[in-house]
Amino acid sequence: MLRPLRLLAFAASLRRDSWNKKLLACAANAARADGADIDHAEFAEFDTPLYNADLQESGGFPPGAQEFARRVVAADGFLLASPEYNFSLPGTLKNLLDWASRMRPMPLRGKHGMLLAASTSLVGGIRGLWQLRIPLEGLGVTLYPDMFALAQAHQAFEPDGRLRGREVEERLRKQLHGYLEMGRRLSS
Amino acid sequence: MLRPLRLLAFAASLRRDSWNKKLLACAANAARADGADIDHAEFAEFDTPLYNADLQESGGFPPGAQEFARRVVAADGFLLASPEYNFSLPGTLKNLLDWASRMRPMPLRGKHGMLLAASTSLVGGIRGLWQLRIPLEGLGVTLYPDMFALAQAHQAFEPDGRLRGREVEERLRKQLHGYLEMGRRLSS
Amino acid sequence: MLRPLRLLAFAASLRRDSWNKKLLACAANAARADGADIDHAEFAEFDTPLYNADLQESGGFPPGAQEFARRVVAADGFLLASPEYNFSLPGTLKNLLDWASRMRPMPLRGKHGMLLAASTSLVGGIRGLWQLRIPLEGLGVTLYPDMFALAQAHQAFEPDGRLRGREVEERLRKQLHGYLEMGRRLSS
Amino acid sequence: MLRPLRLLAFAASLRRDSWNKKLLACAANAARADGADIDHAEFAEFDTPLYNADLQESGGFPPGAQEFARRVVAADGFLLASPEYNFSLPGTLKNLLDWASRMRPMPLRGKHGMLLAASTSLVGGIRGLWQLRIPLEGLGVTLYPDMFALAQAHQAFEPDGRLRGREVEERLRKQLHGYLEMGRRLSS
């Protein structure tokens, strides 16, 4: 692959001080250092109303869903950090995917991605990511098998935003490298 | 149980001509005929903005989530008909559950429910219901094990809204009866 | 309910020193102290060959599956402690359920149960239990919504087998009591 | 990629007249016609006792698990047709994966695969495949997002074993081609 891999990176959280935003920033930096070209988006840019088929028929797709589609299509794949809400994926993120899934051509089909989660619990949000795989793979996304779950996120960052501890940083770097290698092969 | 079982009944669809609304209406009628007291709600009454923890902290719970909580708390259990979007539950419904899950006391805990789905496909929406069970059970709802999936919904209704065919009507009646029996025991 | 609730209790592990066996023993004791009548079984009593429909047709059901069915039928419900293998339920347990599901009448239908898991990890085996709910509920079992996951099981027991720490013991006792209350209502 | 892609192909069924074996044979033929090198295995070659950690410690890995590992390691990826048992994957297949997951190096890590299912029902076994993805992806397998579900399998084959109907044959051929293209990129 002669050009760098292009990845859309976003965290599926609207709150300002989101652990998933912090984790996503670390992942985006590590991916850049590994040669990827990162389009770092805010979830708020993809703001949509609640999905309603009547709304779609009368008014078409909302600007936030169109912006999401435009950014996905321009990328080879994505880094997505998502909180776990109630043992599953956030309704907000699923609502965006529900809108995007109605577009033709469907923007996610043929893309690849890697999932991450941060959580203040000991479990690290991994159960939510397993539920998130289902609509993404159902929509034709090739997901990197390994997922990065950051437990006890409230103790996991340095004041400057970097991950605390060489071991966890190295784990993220290695996992990202595995995904980037897969992405480069799939997008070449 | 001396008083009738009180059930909140709603379909998780905002569109006007929703197959799930039609199926829910049939289920509500059958439950009434079996002695239940039905509070038939429109999903639009539970309209909420996309979940945002900052919004919750600054502005509290939106009126739609509060209305949902009030109706859930007033009921013993619920009948919930939900479409399947992308092999999972609708983001709209998950977003409502995400709001409700933050309330204290949490309105769904200790309630029971039965899930239904209508779909124009041959599969009938059952995969979405399996994903819907996860947040509901995680929130402490006792779900009736059997679920009612109506396949090929576009051919399943009479012009007056009743289910076409004695067999499918009987299947719904029996399954509802099983749930009502469970509900009466749990709420006595 | 005039008679005590009868529960089959077993841990889905064949190894001798199984954390799930230890946890199951604690749960069985706590359920007895709460008035339940416990049939404590060893998983090895339910030993079956790998499921093969030809084998079933030629030779009928293996003794281990028949024993499982007999014990399930004699009980109102069950306590089941299961390890997590590879983010899902053990193949051994699923194989037993696959045999049992072919019997007519199907022994699990109409029963209720509560799931537990012990694991030496920080996550506690809860992901495996979520996958275990699917075949059990699909087979008509009413599962208590809350599940008991014991993390870091290698540090969780006293030498005499009791759970270490008042807090975790109390959490188990309370959760069991909630299940027993549900079970008594459903089986009355 | 100068050499052909090497795929292990097997159906997770022990019965002689298995719809999944028939479907697997069609898929193996189509993959060969598309240039792949197929190692067609019988599930019975991977026969294992029920997983027991004590057994592993005392006796090592059973011959069936070792044979499975050897064949997986020799391949770039796999075609796996699996029946759905009780809304989930077969216990027999999970038991094999549970054995294989204990081996070091773990034979499945880094492999890729595509899943298929045949069923006599209208649903086609797709729910079982969704549960099968979890342990496979958890073990590091890159799964092709699309899965091939053959509904009403008892009416789906010609007497000579080929799929009945140009449309379904074409659907299988196209989906396989998509997987082979992914596999060639990942294994180059």
The CATH class label of chain A is Alpha Beta
What is the rounded distance between the termini of chain A? 5 Å
Topology pattern of chain A, helix = H, strand = E:
EHEHHEHEHEEH
* Major beta sheet summary of chain A: 6 strands, parallel
Class by SSE composition of chain A: alpha/beta
Q: Which CATH architecture of chain A?
A: 3-Layer(aba) Sandwich
Task: Enumerate the spans of chain A where pLDDT stays under 50 for 5 or more consecutive residues.
Answer: none
User: What does the overall shape of chain A look like?
Assistant: globular
Fold and architecture overview:
The structure is a homotetramer of 188-residue chains. Chain A is an alpha/beta fold. The first copy, chain A, has a single domain (6-186), classed as Rossmann fold (3-Layer(aba) Sandwich). The first copy, chain A, is 41% helix and 14% strand. The first copy, chain A, has 6 helices and 6 strands. Chain A has helices at 19-33, 53-59, 63-74, 91-100, 126-138, 166-186; strands at 6-11, 37-40, 77-81, 112-118, 142-143, 148-150. In chain A, strands 1, 2, 3, 4, 5 and 6 form a 6-stranded parallel sheet that branches. Chain A is globular, with a radius of gyration of 16 Å. The N and C termini of chain A lie close together (5 Å). The model of chain A has no long low-confidence stretch (mean pLDDT 97). Chains in contact: A-B, A-C, A-D, B-C, B-D, C-D. At the A-C interface, helix 5 of A face helix 5 of C.
